[in-house]
Structure formats: structure tokens, C-alpha cells
Design a protein that fits this description.
The complex is a heterodimer.
Chain A (H helix, E strand, L loop, with lengths): L4 E4 L3 H9 L3 E3 L5 H7 L6 E4 L9 E4 L2 E5 L4 H6 L1 H6 L1 H8 L4 H4 L4 H4 L59 H7 L3 E5 L5 E4 L7 H4 L12 E8 L2 H4 L1 E6 L10 E10 L2 E10 L6 E2 L1 H7 L6 H11 L11 H17 L4
Parallel strand pairs in A: 1-3, 2-3
Antiparallel strand pairs in A: 4-5, 5-8, 6-7, 6-8, 9-10, 10-11, 11-12
Helix pairs in contact in A: 5-8, 11-12, 12-13
Chain B lengths: L20 E2 L22 H6 L14 E7 L5 E7 L1 H4 L4 E5 L26 E2 L5 E7 L2 H10 L1 E6 L10 E2 L15 E3 L2 H7 L2 E9 L11 E7 L2 E6 L4 H11 L7 E4 L15 H13 L3 E4 L1 H4 L10 E9 L5 E13 L12 H4 L5 E10 L12 H19 L3 H7 L17 H12 L11 E3 L2 E13 L1 E3 L1 E8 L4 E4 L9 H13 L7 E3 L16 H24 L9 H7 L4 E8 L7 E3 L9 E13 L4 E12 L6 H20 L5 E2 L4 E2 L19 E6 L22 H13 L10 H4 L2
Parallel strand pairs in B: 1-30, 2-14, 12-13, 16-17, 22-23, 27-30
Antiparallel strand pairs in B: 2-6, 3-5, 3-7, 4-6, 8-17, 9-17, 10-15, 11-12, 11-14, 15-16, 18-19, 19-26, 20-25, 21-22, 21-24, 26-27, 28-29
Helix pairs in contact in B: 9-16, 12-13, 15-16
The chains are: A alpha+beta, B alpha+beta.
Chain lengths: 334, 749
């Protein structure tokens, strides 16, 4: 790791000014330090925004929850307001990482974590030391994961240039909740819907992963609370029970009555470089009875568009099963 | 700061010891309140969990340089050039040691040195991560950065891996890793298979895995007045002395090795690896102490691993379940320069009474590092295969898996024909089955369903080789009356600081309280390494003899009867003695330094166990989880039931990892492990492990294996667990998994 310049921002304006000048924004640093040690990034300067209290905490604003970008995952997960209004987000936050990391990692930084693809995360401080091609590390070098039966590869939205997934848990919940991020930066404030925040490779190539521009900062998230959000669940499927990224996850917001689904929003995690909303399936679920076979049939249909890598045919099946199970959980059937 | 204890599964440890030691009828044995067999608390527990313990490389002398190895980025090729200038231009970088700086080396002995190839002695790259240069800097960060900037130009060649390599027969002569016969053949297995009423034939694969101990290997080399002082995290202090004395052409007595604690090892720190040679070489060239901590990624190339073992099993049996033929052929990956042998059929040779048994042991040489022992070597990967096949046979012939094993129980060693030194496996089966409730198990698959979960149970037998090393120890009585046990052995977390004083206490007829233990140094009496489940049997016996010797000296001084403990200080001062030293040794038949299975002695020695598990499988989500486990062992006398229980639980968790999670996947195109960190390699964590792990030992005293009734336990706990889990998954789902670990694609419905 090379030496770098460190500055701490006391105010949002100071942070924005430093970021506009090219400083890398540091909040919880639980991911940034990994990048620096692995050689993924070598910033000249960091601006530490962790002392800007205006960006911290959860508050109610009409029918929405407003969650500051510096709120830690544990604070999000244990917030009564979040647990009541958007349980899917609380569960996703608490199923991320480990207790120690959740005390440090922020909701703003969490969605900016990068793929856990081991080819991307190779230890290589210089490009010359990269043991294999990775277009995210060395543009134009290729994708070593593309031709391996790599189990955490994307099944949607990938291209031959990159098959990586976005591993965040909270972002799957935020997408299912139709949350919006408040952004500020050199060109002034704006909003980005969390369903659009990330880019699949077919939209942004191997290198561009979000719609955030250089110098921009996430200030807070606005989470609309409706009946479906109140009845939401997060199902995370992974090899081990804790401290592990999802193989597949499903966030479901569900409104139902008398055994029939009124409306549903379903997002899958770890199947693409962005949270993958199943919009067609959501339409098909409205009016469907809360019945295992009926829900499973809808989800199986949603997977017809999936493109698993060779040897990964089981993964769309797992995604369909997880999505169906999460709907049944939200409906109180499991 | 928020603490969220309620969101993680809390693993409450019940250290109740009521039924830890049982007799053959299942009745609990009352535990003594002191000495051997008592539940003495770990003597070094507090300092370890509070961080007060200072590990070997944690206290570098002033002026120590940090060394970082420049590893080969490819698995095979020829080095054209190494340019150190970009590194030397960095602030803090003091020197870069290159192959041309290497001194002429002496003989390499394998083992204790782990590999016959010494890096930085020629231009050939033989495995990914092979050290090519050493960057020395004032700080670790500077050395790491410098190492990244050393420019290495390599003419790369396509690597050969286990997947693409060819099977061959390992060299046995002069091969320190071929300590047992490669092939065995009793009776006529082929003829018996042709006549068998039932035949099982299948291939099983246990993948390569790394040790992933908590403390990655670290070494600190310091030269003082021409003598070498090594501060090292090792499982074998004397092994470092012997390996380096050959290579550095030094008198062994001029090499001093110190190891106050070993932060886990599981075999990775048993033998001596290149960084432990390169650190003293670099320190001599630089004229300053050099510390090399290989780090987590270094654990994947800087030390060894348990090699992938492919087993082909063929079983023949009659309709009564009696085995008529067993064939177990194994292949393991190894480096091109060492024929490392993983004896996958070691347990198969001795577990079941069968007249026709044939085993063979083969290797696949590849462009990889040399493997090494890892808990549990040999029987660990091999018994997954045999005990899975026995389970398959039980369904084929419609016989309960436990009944099938009992029908084939061996009363003496089928391979050597020798009697067992002691074997209570029948009692272990019975006690385990009783505690588990095996009788209530439905015989068919997919018989128990709870919501989305299928529940199944399975079992396996465990067998582990008994390894012994000649060892010595001292028990010293100081003039102030304090007692000290001294042995060069290591403390790797198993409790040696606790049990060796217990042994001395019992032999001296006193309480263990206040008996000090000095270990981890070549200045202390020589012992074997802390591996092969051998420390208690070997060092413990030496300690017992040393305590007996001290007792005898006390009696002589007192002129007959040994007086009470509180009079010993007076006895010494009356006789003008500053320190009274009892010395003891543990020797092996034929004056061997090491033996396996009882060696040249009259008895065959191994440890045994019966493992019963219950799993739940969610086929929709492709997940299997352990619900509970009962494991009962025949392992000789148990010196401390609570530290022994801890070891077995640790071994069982290790086995859960083998069954459900762990694999060091290699990308065969590059000959490189896909993940060289704990993020990409799944180890079990607390939330994966049920509270309900019930461990029991049969009350046993082995009169032949040691001086104190014990055999060994450390590795036994891992054996059989993976097979029991795979067998339970089959019982739950009807899905037979023969390639570990069990994954989503094996289970998803």
C-alpha cells in the first residue's frame, strides 16, 4: 500500500469540495481498505466523511423513511422504524457481513462495494502482477471467470467482458422497496432510483458499475412505506449460515388479503451486477393465490430469461425457488 | 456502537462432564478431582483469549527488517530476469535479495524440510507463489510495496494440474513421505468380487484444502555471535534446527529455536518451509534480524495443503453382510519434486475383518507446491470414501449400517495380523447408538419431512493411525520448592501446558496447582513435533518417567519414604541442593525415532470412533445443515476430559467443513488457487454448528502404546464426520454425493 493524503471533512460542503477535487470518499472503510491492499485502487487522497452527523440516522418523513448514508448496517437493522416500515431492509442489513463489520460499514458505502469475484479480487498491486485477465482490473485484458464454472457468476445482464455480480444485501432490499437515493456532487443535487443505481454489464460494460459520477456522494435514501413494504421479507441463501455473501437472495414486498396477492415487488440479489427486479413476475403475481405451486410457476417462468454459464443450470432453479419461498414467507405461508 | 447479540446464533457451551467418560455398559465413570483424568482448567486460557500471550514473531528486536517474498505469478516457466531497481527506489526498502545472493547450501533432509526443491537456487518456476526474491524494508508496508514493484520476466509454460496430470507410482526408497507400504494385497480380491452377492463400485473425491490456521506462519531470524536464533510459530522446534543445520551447514547446537505459542497449525507448521530458510539467509546478508510473516495469501503457497485424494472403492459382500473383498485405490496430487503420499487407504487396511483386501497408493505429479499433513491426514480423506461405500452397501443389501459394521468388526489387525494394543470400538458403537437413538431411525430414505426440510441420519466408523516419536523431558524441583516440567514440545492450542503438569502431579502424588511448564525451545529436552496426535503419548510418557525419576531421587534423599510436598524445599536445603532434576525418556521398539501403528512392536495401534449425525436438507434452497452429532471414541486413557472434549468437538467441526464447505479450488488454466484468502474459502463458523455435539470416550487404559495408558486423539475427531454427513444426506434425500464438499447443485430439487 502506498502512502496517501488523508483529510477529514467537518461539513458536507467540505466533503463535496474534496471529492470534486479527486479525493476518494471514505466512510466505514471496511471495503476501501481491501481495495487498497489488493491493488484494486491506489488513491492519492482520502476524504473521511464519517464525522458529518447530518448524514447519520433514520427519520420518518410523511410516508417515507429517510436513512442517512452514514447510518451503519447495525443501526439500520436495529432501527424500530425500519423494522416496522421496511423489515426487508432491516433483515438484509443484519444478514450482511459480521457483527463487527456491521458496526463499521455504512448503508451509503455498502451499495458501492464491488464484486466478490475471486478473479477480480486477486492480490496484485501492479497490473503486471495480475495472474489472469480481468476487465475490471486491467481494461481489455479479458474475463477469466467467463469460461470457468464459477458458481457466483451472474445469470442476468452479463456479457463476455464480465460475469460479475453485485454482492450487497441492502441494495436488493432497497430495490424491492423502490427506494431513491439523494445524491449531491459537482453538478448539483439529484436523485437516482435504487433500481437504476447499478448497471449490468450489458448497460455499463465491465468497468462502469453505477450511475454515480466522479465527485458525487450518496447523502441519504428515501424509502416509501406502503402495505407491501410493511409486509416485506429478505431471504438470503448461502453456503454457511452467517458472515457469507449470498449465492442468491430474494427481497419481496408483498400486499395480500384473503389468501390472494394484491401486489408484489420482487428483487433478486447476487444474480447480476445490479439488484434484479422481476417486473413481469410481479405483474403475474397480482391476483395469484398465495399457493406454493402457483407462486413457483410464476417464478419458474421468470427464469426463462436467465443465462447461466455452462454447468450452472442449477442456479436459475435456485433463484426461482428462493423467490417463491420469499413470497410465501412474506405471505405467512412458511 | 450497537451490539446485536440476538441476531447471531449464540453457541452456548455446556462443559458438563457427567457422561464424558463411560464404561462398556454406558455407565458414567466418576472423574478424579486431581491429577490425570481430572477436569483441570487450561493453564494458558486467560492469556490467550485476553491477548496477553506474545507469539514468536510479535516482539521483534530493535532494528529488525521486514521481509516480503516476491512470489512467482505463474505456475510454470523460466525466469528470464528479475529487476529489483523499482523496489530499491522506494523509501524504506533496504535491500532486495536475489537468487545470485544466495549462499551455497548443504544437504536438504525431507522431512524435516518440507520440500526437496529450494527456491531461489535456479531459474525454473515450479509452482505459483514460489519465492523468487526477498524485499527487506524498515516497515511491513514498505516491504510489501517494494515486493509488488520488483519486475519479474518469466517465459511462461502451460501448467499441469491434478485434472490434467498423469497417474504414476511414487518413489518409495529414500522418500521420507512414504513411511508405509504403498500397496498391500491379502487374499484374492478380484476373485472374491467376481463371486460376491453384492458389489459396490464407486469413485469418491476429497478436494485439496488448506490449513487456514488462525496465525499464519511467521518467523524471525536473528544472528548473534555466529549462532542463529529462530523465533518461530512452529509445530516442531527441533525440526527447524535439523533442517537448517543441514542446509546452512551448521552445528545443530548453534541453532536455537524458540516458540512460546503456536497459533494453530493443523499440520502447516509441522515441517520447515522456504521462508524459514530464507529469513536466516536474508538476516545474515543484511546484518540485521529479519522477520517474515507470510500472511494469509502466503498460507496458500508458502506452506502445504492436504492434497486432493481420488479414491476408487470396490466392495464385495455376501447376503449376510460379511465383506468378502475390499479394494481401495487412491491418487493424490503432489509437486514435481516430491512424491508426497497421502495414504488414503491407511484406515481401510485395518478397519474391517475381510480376507481379501487390496490397496494401492498412487500420485499425480503437477506444477504445484508439495502437499503436507493436515488434520486428519490419510484417514481423513480416505475414510470418507470407505465409509460412504459401506453405507452404499448397507442399502444395496438391506442391512442397517451399524449392523453391517458390527458384522465385519475386526478382532485383530487384518493387515499385520497383530493383536490390537487396545480396541473398544464395539463399545463405542453401542454407546454412540444409545445416545443418538439410532434404534428409532427409519431404514428407508426420504422418510422424515418437516415443512420444506428433509431430515436424515447417518453414521460412520472412524480409525486413525497412532504415531509415536521418541521424546525426553525433565521435571525440576527448585530450592524454593516450586516444580517445573520442561520439554522442547509445542503448545498449539490442545492443552499441553495443562496436561503435562497433570501427569507430573499424579506421578508425584501431589496437586498440579503451581507446577510450571516450560516448552517450545531447543534449549529444553528434545521431543517430536506436535503432529500426528503424538504429543500426549510421546512427551506425556517422558514426563511421567521424569516425574518417577524425581520421585526416586526424593526418596533417596529422604532415605526411604518421600516426605509430604511441603517438606521438599527443606529436604533440598538440608542436602545443599539448589535444584533436583528428574529426567525421563520415551523410547520406541528398535530404538526408532518414529513409528506408526506400533512399528516394530508386538501390537497394532490405532484409535477408533463411531460418529452419528442428523442433518436437515432443504432441497428447494440446496442447503444441508448439521442438526446434531454424537461421537464416541476408543482412544486409550483420557488425561483431561474437558480439553479432550474440546479437541474432539474441534475435529468434528473440521469434518463439517470437509463435508459441507471447504475446498481450495484451483484454476487449472493457471495452476493457481482461485481464492487465496478467507473470503473465498468457506470455513464453518459458530452459526453453522449446532449446540448439540455430544462427545464421549470409552473408559480405557492401553497398556502397550505408552507409559500412561493413552493413545492419541487430536486427529481422530475429524475422521468419519464427512462420511457420516454424506450418509445422512443420502438418508434424508436419496441423493448420494461422492464429491466433497456437498454443494447446491448436489441437493437442489
Amino acid at each position: 500500500m502506498e502512502n496517501f493524503r488523508y483529510q477529514s471533512a467537518a461539513t458536507l460542503d467540505a466533503a463535496l469540495a474534496a471529492a470534486a477535487n479527486g479525493a476518494t470518499v471514505a466512510a466505514g472503510t471496511s471495503e476501501l481498505i481491501n481495495w487498497m491492499r489488493l491493488g484494486i485502487t491506489a488513491p492519492n487522497g482520502l476524504v473521511d466523511i464519517s464525522r458529518i452527523d447530518a448524514l447519520r440516522g433514520v427519520r420518518q418523513d410523511g410516508d417515507s423513511l429517510v436513512i442517512g448514508a452514514l447510518t451503519t448496517l447495525n443501526e439500520v437493522g436495529l432501527s424500530e422504524a425500519v423494522r416496522d416500515g421496511a423489515p426487508v431492509l432491516a433483515e438484509a442489513a443484519l444478514k450482511a457481513a459480521s457483527a463487527q463489520l456491521r458496526n463499521r460499514a455504512t448503508l451509503g458505502g455498502n451499495v458501492l462495494q464491488r464484486t466478490r469475484c475471486p478473479y477480480f479480487r486477486a492480490e496484485a498491486v501492479t497490473d503486471a502482477r495480475m495472474p489472469w485477465p480481468c476487465n475490471k482490473r486491467v481494461a481489455g485484458s479479458g474475463c477469466a471467470a467467463r469460461d470457468m464454472p464459477y458458481s457466483r457468476a451472474a445469470i442476468f445482464g452479463w456479457t463476455d467482458a464480465c460475469v460479475a455480480t453485485q454482492p450487497s444485501d441492502p441494495v436488493v432490499a432497497l430495490a424491492a422497496l423502490d427506494a431513491v437515493a439523494d445524491i449531491d456532487g459537482p453538478d448539483g443535487p439529484r436523485q437516482i432510483a435504487m433500481t437504476d443505481f447499478h448497471l449490468a454489464q450489458e448497460d455499463g460494460g465491465a468497468e462502469r458499475e453505477t450511475r454515480l459520477s466522479p465527485g458525487e456522494l450518496i447523502l441519504r435514501y428515501r424509502v416509501p412505506v406502503d402495505a407491501a413494504a410493511r409486509g416485506s421479507v429478505y431471504l438470503k441463501v448461502r453456503e454457511r449460515e452467517s458472515y457469507e455473501y449470498a449465492m442468491v437472495s430474494a427481497a419481496v414486498c408483498l400486499d395480500h388479503a384473503d389468501g390472494v396477492i394484491r401486489s408484489a415487488r420482487v428483487a433478486l440479489g447476487s444474480v447480476a451486477q445490479k439488484p434484479w427486479r422481476l417486473l413481469q413476475a410481479e405483474g403475474a403475481l397480482a391476483g395469484t393465490p398465495l399457493d406454493e405451486a402457483a407462486v413457483q410457476a410464476v417464478m419458474n417462468g421468470a427464469m426463462e430469461a436467465a443465462r447461466p454459464l455452462p454447468g450452472q443450470d442449477w442456479k436459475p432453479r435456485l433463484a426461482a425457488n428462493a423467490a417463491a419461498r420469499a413470497v410465501l414467507m412474506a405471505g405467512g405461508m412458511v | 456502537m450497537v451490539v446485536d447479540a440476538k441476531v447471531e446464533n449464540v453457541h452456548r457451551v455446556d462443559v458438563g462432564v457427567g457422561r464424558l467418560i463411560v464404561d462398556g455398559t454406558g455407565a458414567a465413570v466418576e472423574l478424579p478431582t486431581r491429577g490425570i483424568g481430572s477436569t483441570e482448567r487450561r493453564h494458558d486460557g486467560d492469556e490467550k483469549v485476553t491477548g496477553a500471550a506474545i507469539y514468536a514473531a510479535e516482539a521483534p528486536p530493535v532494528g529488525t527488517l521486514h521481509g516480503v517474498l516476491v512470489g512467482a505469478p505463474v505456475a510454470r516457466g523460466q525466469v528470464r530476469s528479475i529487476d529489483a531497481r523499482p523496489a530499491l527506489a522506494q523509501p524504506g526498502v533496504v535491500q532486495v535479495i536475489l537468487p545470485e545472493d544466495m549462499p551455497e547450501l548443504g544437504d536438504v533432509f525431507v522431512p524435516p524440510f518440507a520440500m526437496s526443491f529450494i527456491p531461489m537456487t535456479d531459474e525454473t518456476v515450479r509452482y505459483e507463489g514460489q519465492p523468487l526474491a526477498i524485499v527487506l524494508a524498515e516497515t511491513l508496508e514498505q516491504a510489501e510495496h517494494g515486493a509488488a514493484l520488483v519486475a519479474v520476466d518469466i517465459a511462461t509454460e502451460e501448467p499441469v494440474t491434478f485434472e490434467t496430470g498423469e497417474v504414476s507410482t511414487p518413489v518409495s526408497e529414500g522418500n521420507g513421505y512414504a513411511f508405509s507400504a504403498l500397496d498391500t494385497d491379502h487374499g484374492d480380491a478380484e476373485a472374491a468380487l467376481a463371486d460376491a452377492a453384492a458389489v459396490v463400485e464407486a469413485d469418491y473425491v476429497a478436494p485439496s484444502r488448506h490449513h487456514n490456521m488462525m496465525e499464519p506462519s511467521a518467523t524471525l531470524a536473528e544472528w548473534r555471535n555466529g549462532e542463529l536464533h529462530m523465533h518461530d510459530s512452529t509445530q516442531w522446534t527441533y525440526g527447524i534446527r535439523y533442517a537448517l543445520s543441514g542446509l546452512l551447514r551448521m552445528d545443530p547446537g548453534a541453532i536455537h529455536v524458540r516458540c512460546p505459542y503456536t497459533g494453530g497449525g493443523f499440520g502447516a507448521k509441522g515441517y520447515v518451509w522456504p521462508h524459514q530458510l530464507l529469513a536466516p539467509i536474508a538476516a545474515r546478508i543484511a546484518g540485521r534480524p529479519v522477520k517474515i510473516a507470510i500472511g494469509r495469501d502466503g498460507c496458500y503457497t508458502g506452506t502445504g495443503y492436504q492434497p486432493v485424494v481420488r479414491s476408487r472403492i470396490r466392495l464385495g459382500a455376501g447376503t449376510d453382510g460379511r465383506l468378502t473383498a475390499i479394494v481401495h485405490e487412491t491418487e493424490n496430487v503432489t509437486s514435481r519434486f516430491d512424491d508426497y503420499v497421502e495414504f488414503g487407504s491407511a484406515g481401510t487396511r485395518s478397519l474391517y475383518a475381510c480376507p481379501n483386501v487390496r490397496t494401492s497408493t498412487r500420485i499425480v505429479s503437477a506444477d504445484v507446491n508439495t502437499p503436507t499433513a493436515m488434520r486428519a491426514p490419510h484417514e481423513g480423506p480416505g475414510m470418507f470414501a470407505l465409509e460412504s461405500a459401506i453405507d452404499e452397501l448397507s442399502y444395496d443389501i438391506g442391512m442397517d449400517p451399524l449392523e453391517l459394521r458390527l458384522a465385519n468388526h475386526a478382532e485383530s489387525d487384518p493387515h499385520t495380523g497383530k493383536p490390537f494394543s487396545s480396541n473398544r470400538l464395539r463399545d463405542a458403537y453401542a454407546e454412540g447408538a444409545r445416545r443418538f437413538g439410532w434404534d428409532a431411525r427409519p431404514p428407508g430414505t426420504r422418510a422424515r419431512i418437516e415443512g420444506h426440510k428433509l431430515i436424515g441420519s447417518g453414521m460412520a466408523a472412524a480409525i486413525m493411525s497412532t504415531f509415536r516419536f521418541s521424546s525426553s523431558a525433565r521435571v525440576c524441583l527448585a530450592s524454593d520448592g516450586t516444580l517445573r516440567v520442561e520439554a522442547g514440545t509445542q503448545e498449539i492450542g490442545t492443552g499441553t501446558r495443562t496436561i503435562f503438569p497433570q501427569i507430573a502431579a499424579e506421578r508425584l502424588g501431589i496437586s498440579a496447582e503451581g507446577i510450571d511448564m516450560r516448552l517450545g525451545s531447543t534449549e529444553l529436552p528434545e521431543t517430536g513435533g506436535t503432529f500426528g496426535s503424538s504429543s500426549t503419548i510421546s512427551v506425556g510418557s517422558a514426563v511421567a518417567h521424569a516425574a518417577d525419576d524425581l520421585h526416586q531421587r526424593l526418596a533417596t534423599l529422604a532415605g526411604g519414604e518421600v516426605p509430604p510436598r511441603d517438606q521438599w524445599a527443606d529436604l533440598l536445603s538440608r542436602n545443599g541442593i539448589a535444584e533436583l532434576i528428574g529426567e525421563g525418556g520415551f523410547t520406541l521398539p528398535g530404538e526408532a525415532a518414529f513409528d506408526a501403528h506400533g512399528g516394530a512392536g508386538a501390537h497394532f495401534m490405532a484409535t477408533w470412533g463411531a460418529v452419528f449425525v442428523e442433518v436437515e436438507v432443504d432441497e428447494g434452497l440446496g442447503l444441508a445443515r448439521l442438526r446434531r452429532c454424537v461421537a464416541c471414541y476408543s482412544a486409550g486413557r483420557i488425561l483431561n476430559p474437558v480439553t479432550a472434549r474440546s479437541q474432539m468437538i474441534g475435529g468434528i467441526i473440521w469434518g463439517v467443513g470437509r463435508a459441507l464447505l471447504e475446498e481450495s479450488a484451483m484454476d487449472p488454466r493457471y495452476g493457481r488457487y482461485v481464492s487465496k484468502n478467507l473470503s473465498g474459502v468457506h470455513l464453518p463458523i459458530n452459526a453453522d454448528i449446532p449446540q448439540d455435539i455430544d462427545v464421549a470416550f470409552i473408559d480405557e487404559h492401553d497398556p502397550h502404546a505408552s507409559a500412561i495408558g493413552v493413545r492419541g486423539i487430536g486427529e481422530l475427531g475429524e475422521v468419519g464426520v464427512a462420511a457420516a454427513i454424506a450418509n445422512a444426506v443420502y438418508h434424508a434425500t436419496g441423493r448420494r454425493v461422492r464429491d466433497l464438499p456437498i454443494k447446491f447443485e448436489h441437493l437442489i430439487g
